């Protein structure tokens, strides 16, 4: 099998850096992108001809993103996989969040990946194949207090991946969101540069006990809450994308949960939702004026990708 070419965003630390290392170890090629990428990853160029570096700010305007994608495409002559990995996280209450805080959270975690996807799709369509992958979060399954904006952005990202797959699979293009559990990374660290994270506001007194409780939860045995290894995340992501290793023989899914902690949260969420659906069913149906009959032509679009093969 010919080596694949990956474009990885947010590749200078955490899961992104682990992805770069793992892609190279499997004999594939990688365009590692991010902020200050030459400064942080320049040493890798002397070790392999399969890596190129691209300075890329995911929150840049769409026209700049399109130019960067064209530049990236021309490095190795094509790209097989866009790995939308760049992300950030922070904590504040809904009442205390400034517009700058919210905009930055969504620009990095949602709008940036959306723009990168829009920019690369014409290239993937022209070559008749491609894969768009996203590093999302188990927070997309559960909204934690004081992390509502992060959960909102990641829920949007995972939903985007699901909808994207249904739009482009007929064109030979696939999409997948990795809903990651806890990993020890730099995710909560402030961003630097032109699109630096705005400083967090001092929490309103009424919310300080709640904020302290959430911080205390993460501080109490953080390794127990974050069992994941960035290196194992990278290995698993590439297995899924290539259909190898632990993912071999499994049907393609547009959302893949990574981490036993994330799996536990997702299972609990679905079990709780089913209980509520049953309890509130009379209320849900109370708005009907006519009999509703499920239709197969709708079901084919709403079915969870991969479930039809199980």
From TrEMBL:
Family matches, as Gene3D superfamilies: NAD(P)-binding Rossmann-like Domain
Is Isomerase set as a keyword in this record? no
For this UniProt record, the keywords arranged alphabetically read as follows:
NADP, Oxidoreductase
A GO molecular function assigned to this protein is:
oxidoreductase activity
Q: Which family does it belong to?
A: Belongs to the short-chain dehydrogenases/reductases (SDR) family.
The name on file for this protein is Short chain dehydrogenase/reductase
Organism of origin is Trichoderma guizhouense
